[in-house]
Amino acid sequence: xxxxxxxxxxxxxxxxxxxxxxxxxxxxxxxxxxxxxxxxxxxxxxxxxxxxxxxxxxxxxxxxxxxxxxxxxxxxxxxxxxxxxxxxxxxxxxxxxxxxxxxxxxxxxxxxxxxxxxxxxxxxxxxxxxxxxxxxxxxxxxxxxxxxxxxxxxxxxxxxxxxxxxxx
Length: 168
What we know:
Elements: H1 9-30, E1 44-48, H2 54-66, E2 73-76, H3 82-89, E3 93-97, H4 99-107, E4 126-129, E5 132-137, H5 147-157, H6 164-167
Parallel strand pairs: 1-2, 1-3, 3-5
Antiparallel strand pairs: 4-5
């Protein structure tokens, strides 16, 4: 009779999320979309509205790094796989960067959603589902070239600083 080591629920969950994310990433690449970055099991998922270019992703990565959230799972909107990503990663916090990302999350019509992103106030946390906090941020692309847009984005973005001890 062989004895198996006891299963660790946290390890099983991370393995499940990793397996599903790998499959979804492959489907995104095959469809010509930019693949997500970060750790799908970290609990923080960020959906960035189009256009998602290198400057936007670099600025977001630097901002996340400044708050100690470099492992955040960042994915572009418009892939057609957002619903599957949300279901597979089961994030504790779901952040929409820009009104386009907010609209896409709202179109998922998640059956457990309490509050639509399109009604959210940028920079203020709200209960999206029982287990997921939601946050709307202003679009990042305009903030790359406009000082006022940059201040609006950063002010709202700072709401993420409270996640550092809980999520990662």
